[in-house]
Amino acid sequence: MKLTIKLLFLTFALLMSTYIVMVESERYESSSIALLKDLENKQKVNLSDVLLGQSSSTMQDSKVLELYVRSSEMFTYLDKENNLTKYYSSEKLDFVQRLYRDSVLPLWKLNHKNLLTQYNKDLLVNYDDPSGTLELTFIHTDPQKAQKILKEIIAKSEDVINDFAKENARIALAFIEAQREKKRQLFVEAIKKLIEYQNKHHTIDPNLDVERKMAILSDLELELIKSEVEYATKLKTFNPNSRELKMIKENIRNIRKSIEHVKKSLSGNSSLTELNTNVFDFQLLKNDMEFAKEVYRQTLINQEEIKIEVAQQSKHLAVVVHPNLADDYTYPNKLWDIFTMLLLLILVYSIVMAVVSIIQNHKD
Predict the structure, then answer these.
(1) For the domain bounded by 26-169+313-338, which CATH number is listed?
(2) Does residue 91 sit in helix, strand or coil?
(3) pLDDT value at position 199?
């Protein structure tokens, strides 16, 4: 029995070695390193994201890009351009790696699921967090085809990542346009309330009215003091009934009437408290209008910025290392594969022989 097992393992090792050396398809890989850049340069490091271990914007975009390049949509695009369906079912691949239309074995049947699985086996994607770069590798039996497909993956990925950004911008634009109309309406309503108050109280700005009247009052009081000083001075040398002193005295009387009139117009029929209330109400309405104006202005600025985002290419997949053209096959690594296979067989063989020995000793 032990001899039979040994022969079986030797036969299997010989067949596997023959397959690796003589039959397994030699495949070439083309590799590239790319960096996803935000042309708007708006990327900011959020301290809370760092402390909580959350993904940065670049890492998130790169992971989304990785999901897309592995997706059915990307495979369909590449299949249309390079006929990958025919490739995965052709004799360019050995009988083990090939898919068959009439296969009864699910894993080797030519269908979309297995095609996508094979495509993802040939596509290697690795994100390097420290540098923020994305390493892409594609494997094919034709080195030129591997390079061509990888170039198409990079070009298509850049278009798609920009489509993602533009779609997000379009959604934001629709929202900001609705907000703009609301903010405009609030601004218009604030202006109407201010004008209504001005019309009701017959004033442009109570503050300006008060300031203007206070300036007039100050000038009148200064003029009154000058006239009184002049009158007192001339009274020492002139007759009180003289024409000049009578004119000065009349002027003083008129100035005092003017001062009383200005003071009365300042307070009107209202108390000082009511006057202050009017000033406060007006200032509140004015501040509301200014605030609504600023909010509306900022909304317009945001709308224009988002319009630019929709129109421009905001993200760029910068190629750090261009897809190379392999001059020698990468897979299979024949010596390593044979060594690994023999090591595993020896391990399994040792376990099997140990089990057989235990069984035979138990029988004895």
Answers:
(1) 3.30.1890
(2) coil
(3) 80
Residue indicated by tokens 């376990």:
351
Q: What is the pTM of this model?
A: 0.62
> Which residues pair with residue 34 across a beta bridge?
134, 319
Q: Annotate 338-353 with DSSP letters as a single string.
A: HHHHHHHHHHHHHHHH
Burial class (CB in 10 A: 0-12, 13-18, 19+), 135: middle
Nearest residue to 80 (alpha-carbon basis) of 156, 147, 162: 156
Q: SS3 of 317, please? A: strand
What's the half-sphere exposure (Cβ side, CA atoms, 13 Å) at 181? 5
Domains in the chain: boundaries: 26-169+313-338, 175-311
CB 109 within 8 A of CB 99: yes
CATH number of the domain at 175-311, out of 1.10.287, 2.115.10, 1.10.150, 1.10.10? 1.10.287
Q: What is the pLDDT of residue 52?
A: 38
Please answer whether residues 116 and 75 qualify as being in contact, where contact means their C-beta atoms are separated by less than 8 angstroms.
yes
CA 350 – CA 356 distance, rounded (Å): 10
pLDDT of residue 136: 96
Tell me the C-alpha distance between 65 and 68, whole Å. 5
Listing DSSP states for 274-312 in one string gives HHHHHHHHHHHHHHHHHHHHHHHHHHHHHHHHHHHHHHS
Mean pLDDT split into 10-residue runs, the chain, 364 residues: 84 92 94 82 44 56 89 95 95 93 92 96 92 92 96 90 72 79 86 82 66 78 86 80 83 86 65 58 82 86 74 73 93 93 93 85 68
